[in-house]
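Re: beginner question about structure tokens

> Can someone show what the tokenized structure looks like for a real chain? I only ever see the sequence side.

Sure, here's an example I had lying around. Input first:
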Amino acid sequence: MNRSNILHLSILFHELKSPLNAILNLAKLIELNLKEPDEQKIKKYTSLIISQGIFMKNYISNIIELGRLQSGKEDLIIE
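And the corresponding structure tokens:
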């Protein structure tokens, strides 16, 4: 693997790590709030978990799509 590929992977994994950390930390906050349930806080935390999960899913999908485009398996269609 050349330096350029390693740098790209490093950036990619850093970008994936951020929403994953948010998801894990929010799940920990929910766990802590279950001892003294606060429905509004739990709803807020679960909403943030879902949004971070969707962000991560879309980011991964975009990376997969970019890989397909770069490999020539798909053509870019601009709408």
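Each token stands for a local structural state, so reading them left to right follows the chain. The chain is about 80% helix and 0% strand.
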